[in-house]
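Figure 2 data, in text form.
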Amino acid sequence: MEFKTKALYNSATNLAEEDAQVYGGNITLLDLQSAARFYPILIQLAKQQKTVTYGELCRLTHEQYSDWVHINSIIPVRCGRILGVIGQFMQERNLPFLQALVLNQTKQDSCGDGIEQVMNTAIARQEVFDFNWENISDSFDLYIEQTEELVTRPKKKAQPLMSWDEAHKLMFSYYKKHKASLPRQISEYRDALTRLIQNGKSAEEVFEILIAQHSLTTR
């Protein structure tokens, strides 16, 4: 029977989207590499039905991966975003949320404000303890490998909103119409004006921007 969590307050919650809002950005390569080291430790804890604090998880990771070049990046303050990577994997694979095993140092019945807002961590923790982890094929390494490819793949440059010729026509039309009131030197910035129009600015806006940017004086 396929596992289905009852821990999320809203079954439609997408942890990837939640994490992006909380941490203000996308997953980094270091996040993925760190998660790859947390994961086997959490699996072992799940089998033993044990919890750890953020500090203890860092200590265990340092002990097991002391020769890793980035081991000093494993500190409690970074644990949330690293565990977020694992949480996204668990949600995609319909598995219990392993991050519920990691508790605050000072408030040891809590996993932290962020995760507590989206799930009942006590239920999530019990689901982890009740689950048979022996039957899970470890596909986390493959997930990390595939996600690393996405993270490191060069991003395509955004396409301009209009062609150079169209933008140039708008720029030149505005220039001709307002030439008498524009600074003489503005003609030196034709290409910059055109590029800004290409990317969505109005002709009036781009002339104002360039004039202010270069402190140009009117005729």
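Caption note: The mean pLDDT is 86.
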